Fold this protein.
Amino acid sequence: MKKTYKIEVDCANCANLMETAARKTAGVASATVNFMTQKMIVEFEEGQQAADVMENVRKACKKVEPDCEIFL
Amino acid sequence: MTKKQKVMLWRILIATVLLLGLQSLGAQAFEQMGPAGRWVRLGLYLADYLIIGYDILRKAFKGICNRRVFDENFLMAVATLGALALAIYENGEYLEVIAVMLFYQIGEWFQSYAVGKSRRNISDLMDIRPDYANVEQDGTLEKVDPDEVEIGSVIVVQPGEKIPIDGVILSGTSTLNTAALTGESLPREAQTGDEVISGCINMTGVLKIRTTKEFGESTVSKILDLVENASSRKSKSEDFISRFARIYTPAVCYAALALAILPPLMRMFGMGLAPEWGSWIYRALTFLVASCPCALVISIPLTFFAGIGGASKAGVLVKGSNYLETLSQTRIVVFDKTGTLTQGVFEVDAIHHSKISDEQLVEYAALAESASSHPISKSLQRAYGKEIDRSRVSDIQEISGNGIIAKVDGLEIAVGNDKLMDRLGVSYLPCHSVGTIIHMAIDGEYAGHIVIADVVKPHSKEAIQRLKAAGIRKSVMLTGDAKKVADQVAVSLGLDQAFSELLPADKVEKVEQLLREKSDREKLAFVGDGINDAPVLSRADIGIAMGAMGSDAAIEAADIVLMDDDPLQIPKAIKISRKCLGIVYQNIVMSIAIKLACLILVAFGMANMWLAVFADVGVMILAILNAIRALQVQHL
């Protein structure tokens, strides 16, 4: 399952950090952050609840870049 | 400007005014206040410092709490706090501390403004998303969300409006502007029965359209989806930069630490000199400011984004930055013939040995073939050009693989190939021309033949020449057509190689063979029309589908989609990719070179904090401005 989320992040490097953080989150099969279109595309592992996983993704991202926001 | 940017702008202005005021007062003004003056002065400067930099300090602190130490906020916080500590200790110049923070924030503000602005510019370029669809209900038009229109609904498009959903024209004629989709400025005529695709602008007449797709499946949605997701597929250059930043940031931090500690220790114990801790710590802090990798990290994706945006404006849809990169390294181009280099539409090329007038011959042929829908029959009917009176034709007998025998105006007309003539025992004259030969016999008597050929596109030759001028080493044509036809086309277009009489599977094999023969650094592009060549498109290093307006299969299979079927788009696409990659390399080399130069100057004590701020912010601004050039592709 693949979902796209709108994000808000100011710098390209921070976007890279968010991408790395999202990829490391449990339940995420793959994640790409598109800084230019301010979007995060997340592919979830089988049988995962997108909403729960995204809560963790958001926490992980906030940790690496306090200024970012993911609109769930 | 976003709210965040506005707030930042105010903070920058206030901090600047306060800084200028404090500077013009000078240190003497405070000394008159006695011993407290020093602390009042410090307090005012500290307030200014906090106005401009509080968010940086906060982020740096949070970073440390989250055990993410080496980011730019941390660098800035350490550098300015360190310089501040030195200034307090010496009761010296605070200007530098605040100026550095100020310039850093101005740079950040400019970056966010420029990136936001170019993002919007590029999005505006691709502003083909229709906002509504007009649905007729009880005689009145109602505007609805295109998403809610079901397949088979009838929508009305008025002059000046965008066609929101793909469909077939039920009534009305008009001229369509396809510029937003194809980059082609010449308008296209559309009339009842024509298929139209979403995203075109209806220019002259009212059109009633029966939709054939949902909005989400329509051309316009597919294109938007494709372009918006394009920068998600990262190129090697972008990966390189991400990896570079990951190693670079800690590396410069340790280098700065070494710069602060090692030289003074060496001076103390090695050379017996005064350690000069202050001066070396200052150098280390300057080193940290100069080292920020932002210029690289921001400008490379921005360049690709601008390049992809510019390309889509020119009717070249690129599915990802990585494909743009591969395209720029292309040295071998393999073409499919039919529909790519040639029109894929058969036309009557010549008429030979006709016993009756040419028009008469074509008329008989068209009438005899009137019941057939074979492309060749269609081309004969087109060449005839008049309404076909079916009542003149009777006793149609189709002999599969040979041709047709029919009675027209009481005469027995045989239209077909050599085999048909042999079968009827008619002696025929072989043809020296290249193409499909249609022999005709009237009442068992040979009446001449019609040569039907696929017409080469008007720009094919020029496209091949331009490709060669652009450094394409080898151009190859693959076709299922006869060798004679293939060779003639290849020679007339100036292609290096042609393989003919191939089945679709053979084409894949040929491409694989060409892939084995080339070196790794050279890339092979395959250009096809997306019909029957999807496997080849995906097998090549890069698959280019052309004339793909509305063809889902092609959009799926290809890496690059040319909206127009003009072969000149191919050299253009390659040039766009080269320009974009050129800018990427310029930015990488320029940023790293200036950075290294500044870092070395700083390490040897030949530069101050001001140069360091230029190395950080100035280089970034230059790189962003350079990146935006990738958007300009009209004159390539």
